[in-house]
Amino acid sequence: MSHEHAKTATQNACKLCNPLGACLAFRGIENCVPFLHGSQGCATYIRRYLISHYKEPIDIASSNFHEESAVFGGSHNLKVGLKNVSNQYKPEVIGIATTCLSETIGDDVPMILREYKKEFKNGSPMPILIHASTPSYQGSHIDGFHAAVHATVKALAVKGSRQRLINLFPNMVSPADMRYLKEIFRDFGVAFMMMPDYSQTMDGGPWGEYHRIPPGGTPASAVAGSGSATASIEFGSTLESEKSAADYLDVLFGVPAYHLPLPIGIKGSDRFFSLLETLTGEKRAEKYEDERRRLVDAYADGHKYVFDKKVIIYGEEDLVIGMVAFLQEIGIAPLLCASGGKSGLLKKRIEELVPDVNELGIKVREGVDFVDIEEEAKILQPDFLIGNSKGYTMSRKNKIPLIRLGFPIHDRFGGQRMHHLGYRGTQELFDRIVNTVIEQRQNASSIGYTYM
Amino acid sequence: MVSGSESGEYGEEKAETNLFIERGMAMEHLGILEGRKKQILEKRSGMTQADIACDTSSLSGSVSQRACVFCGSRVVLYPVADAIHLVHGPIGCAAYTWDIRGAVSSGPELHRLSFSTDLQEMDVIYGGEKKLYTSLIELIEQYKPKAAFIYSTCIVGLIGDDIEAVCRKVARETGIPVLPVHSEGFKGTKKDGYKAACHALMQLIGTGSTEDISKYSINILGEFNLAGEAWIIRQYYEKMGIEVVSTLTGDGRIDAVRRAHGASLNVVQCSGSMTWLAKEMEEKYGIPFIRVSYFGIEDMSKSLYDVALKFPERPDIMDAAKQIVSEEVKTLYPSLQKFKKALTGKKAAIYVGGAFKTFSLIKALRSIGMSVVLAGSQTGNKDDYARLKEMCDEGTVIVDDSNPVELSKFILEKGADLLIGGVKERPIAFKLGIGFCDHNHERKIPLAGFVGMYNFALEVYQSVMSPVWQFAPRKGGLQ
User: In angstroms, what separates the C-alpha of A130 from chain B's closest C-alpha?
Assistant: First the structure.
C-alpha cells in the first residue's frame, strides 16, 4: 500500500528486543538467574515489562556497564557480576544474555566465561554458565527466546542410551499453556522434557519466606537427558533450522525432530495429539476426546456469530500462523496478518495454510509496527483486532474491539493464565471471540436483548 | 570501613561480618552482599554510625531496582506533550518506554507515541546518522511537533554517530528546536540522565518572550502531572494569585518552557531530577529556587506557605494560602480519621526513586497512624540520607540502591504491612502477602495535593486492610 507518510523510524513497535525473550526463557530453567551483560537499564526495563504481564517478581541480574567497561571491555564487570550473583542467589544455572552494548564492543563472552571458571575453580560450587548471543539490533524478542533455548540445550544435552522420553520445545507460550501441555504428556504416561517451563516461576503461589529464585522450571539435569530422547517436538513455523533446539538434537544425537505450528484450532490440536499417539503408541485419554467433542459442539453453537467476520491479527509470527489456522476453521478471514518479526517466512507459511490467500485478499506483512497496522485498519475496517495489549491504542482510536491474547497483556488481568493451545485453549479463544461479537451486538442494539 | 576498592566489590556473603555488627543489624538467612553493606544502615541511638554510602553506581550482578542514564532522561522529558521523542538505538529502549507513564496532557499527546530509529546490524556497522536524519525529517513532517528530543542509547556513542551535527542540520531545515539528549545508558547513573535532560531543557529556556509575565510568578519544577497532579498544584498557586509560567515538565509545552526564565521563583519538587536545572537557572537568570513536596498535609501546606513567603510585599498571597489550607484541611481531616483508626500501629516500608519523596511519605504515613520500618531510595544523596536518619524512628532500616533480596529480607524481619514503591517492587509485596501502594510514575490516581492525601490514605487502607491477606502464608494461610 502507499503510505500517507514516508516512514523510516519505527513508531509504536510491534516487537520487543532480543534480550527480553532470552530472560524469559532462562526463567524457565530450574534454579536459574537470568543475567544481562550490558547496562543496568536493560535488566530493569525488561523486569518491569515482564512483571506487568506476569505479576511475579523476576530478578534479572546485570553486569552494569560503566564507561570504563565500554572502553576496556566488559570482562571485569561480567566476572564480578557472576561472582556476586552466585553468592547472593546460589543458582545452579546462570543464563547470560548479551545486549547491543556488549555485542557492539565485541566482548568475547565464551572466552570470558572460560577465564572466569579458571579463576574461580576452587570457589563455591560453580553454577552452570549458559551464554546466548542476543544483540538487540538483530531480530526481536522471539529470537532471543529461541537463542536461549538453543544455547541451553547446546550447553547441557549429552548423548545417552535411548530413553522413552519426548522433548518438547513449546515456544513462547503462556504459563497456563505450559501446565496444559505437561498435563497432556502426563496423561499419555510418557516421560518428557519441556524447555523452558516457566509455568510456575512466572505464575506461582504466595511465599511464606523470600525465595531468591522461585521454585519451578526445567531442571538442568533434565535438559542434559534430552540427547537421549525418542523424539523432539518443537512448536513454531518460522524458526530456522540452525536456531532450532530440536534440530540441534537431531543432528548431534539423532533425536528425530518433529516441527508443528502452535497447535491452535481443532486440526492443529489433532495433529499434535496424533503425533503423540504415534510417538508413544498410546491412545489419548478420554478427557481429551471430551474436550474435542465439546469444542466441535461449541463451534456448532457459535458458528453464526463468527462466520465471515473480518479481523486483523498481529503478534509474533508463529502465534499469527497458529491463529490463522484456527480462524480458518470457524470462517473468519484475516484481512491482515501482521508481525513485527521478520523471518521472511510468514507469507509462505500462511500460503501453505490458506492456498487461496491472494484470491481472498489476505494481506501478510512482516516487520511492521502499530502505526502501519493502524493505517491498514483504517482502510480494511475489520470487525475486530486480535493480538496483545499494545493494540489497544489503535483499537480505542478507531473504535475496533480488541481481543487480547499472547504477550504482553498489560491492560487486563490474568494474561499469564490465558490458554491458547490445544482443544482447551482453542475453546477459550473461541468463547472469547463469540462473546466479543455478542457484546458488540448487544451494545449496538437499541432494544437491549437479554437473550442472544 | 570498606571502600569501593576491589576487595569490597566481590560480595562474599559472610554470615556476620564485623562491619555488619557495627551497624547493629542481625544477619539472618537472607544475606547482604559485602559490597552492598555500606549502603545500608539501621538507626540505633547511642551508636556512632558511619554515614550511608550513596551516589555510587550499582554493584555488578546485584539486581538493582535502578535503571540507566537513558531512563533518567526519558522520565524527565517524557511529559513534554507537543514534542516528539525519538530514541536513537535498537528497538528495546523505545518499546519499553512506550506510553508507560501516567503523565497526562491537556492538549497534544505526542509524548504517548514511541519513536525509534530501530537500529539494525548494518546500521551498527555503517553508522546510523542517515537513518536518524531521515527519521527526523519524516516524523517532523508527519507530526508537526514544536520540538524534537533525540535520545542517544548505549551503542550510539560507540558507533560514532555525530548526533549533534544531525540535530543542528535538521533544526536548520525544519525551523524547530532539535535537541540531542546524551543519555547513553552506561555513562553514569539515572541521575546523569536527569542532568542530560535538564541540559536539553536549558537549551530551550530563554528563547521565548517574557513579556506580560507577572512579578508574582513561578515555575513548577519536577512535577510530571501524573494523573493530573500538576493541575491540582497549579490551581492552588493560581488561587493564591500567582502566575505559573511553566510546569517542568508535567503537561509540558515547548513554548512555556521557552518562557520559563521569566518567572520570579522556581519551586522544585522531585529534587533528584530538577535541582540541577534550578541551579543553572539561578546562575544564568538569577531566579532563586525552593524545594517543596506536595505529598501529605504538612508538606503540601508548607509548599504553599513557602512560596507565599517569597512574596512578602503581597500579604494577600499568604492570606490566600492560609485560606486554601484551612478549607482543604477542614474537609480532608475528618475524612482521614476512618483510615487512621484502622491503620494505627501498622508498619510501612518505603522504597522509591528519590529520597525527598520518602520524607513526605514518612510524615504522611504518621498522619494516618503508621510507622516506617524501612526507608530507602534509588538515588538519594548524603544530605538526603542524613535527614532521613534524623526523621526515622529507632530501628528503621535505611537503604540506598537496594535490591529484591534485601527489600524482602527487611520486610519480613521488620514485619511490614505495606510496601510503597513502583512496578518492580509490587510483586515482592504481593508475594510476601502485604499491602502495596504504587507511588511511581505509572500511577493513575493523583497522590499530590490535599485531595491526593485522601487518595493515598484510601489506597493504603484498601490494600493493607484487605481481607485477602488472611490467606497469605505469612498469616498462617488458614491452614
Answer: 16
CATH T-level fold of B217-324: Rossmann fold (3.40.50)
Lowest mean pLDDT across A343-352, B31-40, B311-320, B405-414 = B31-40
* Residue partners of B281: CB distance under 8 A and separation at least 6: B202, B205, B260, B261, B266, B287, B289
A393 with B99: Cβ contact below 8 A = yes
Q: What is the pTM of this model?
A: 0.93
* B44 pLDDT more than 70: yes
Minimum Cα–Cα distance from B63: chain A residue: A61
- The answer to whether the CB atoms of A51 and B423 lie below 8 A apart is yes
- B138: part of which helix (H) or strand (E)? helix B129-143
Q: Which residue among B115, B188, B427 sits closest to A9, beta carbon to beta carbon?
A: B115
Spatial separation of the C-alpha atoms in residues A319 and A59, rounded to whole Å: 27
Question: Does this chain's domain A18-156 share its CATH topology with A165-203+213-280?
Answer: yes
Write down the architecture of domain A165-203+213-280 according to CATH.
3-Layer(aba) Sandwich (3.40)
Does residue B123 register a pLDDT over 70? yes
Per-residue pLDDT of B365-408, as tens digits, reads: 999 999 999 998 887 888 888 888 888 888 899 988 888 888 89
* Distance between CA atoms of residues A75 and A69, nearest Å: 8
Taking an 8 Å cut-off on Cβ atoms, the answer to whether B92 and A206 are in contact is: no
Domain ranges of chain A: 18-156, 165-203+213-280, 286-444
Nearest to B420 by CA among B466, B373, B380, B469: B373
Contact B61 A65 (CB under 8 A): no
CA distances from A411 to A371, A432, B100 (A): 19, 16, 11
Indicate the residue of A17, A66, A137 with minimum beta-carbon distance to B186: A66
B192-221 confidence digits (pLDDT tens): 999 999 999 999 999 999 999 999 999 999
Match 526519558 to its residue by C-alpha cell: B74
Q: Cβ contacts (< 8 Å) between B158 and chain A: which residues? A: 70, 101, 104-105
For residue B83, the distance in angstroms to the closest alpha carbon of chain A comes to 15
> How crowded is residue B58: how many other Cβ atoms within 10 Å of its Cβ?
25
Domain B325-475: CATH class, spelled out: alpha beta
The CATH architecture of the domain made up of A18-156 is 3-Layer(aba) Sandwich (3.40)
Locate CATH 3.40.50.1980 in chain B.
69-204, 217-324, 325-475
Residue B23 is predicted with a pLDDT of 33
Residue A393 has pLDDT above 80, yes or no: yes
Nearest Cβ partner of A84 from B62, B131, B432?
Answer: B62
Q: pLDDT at position B3, please?
A: 37
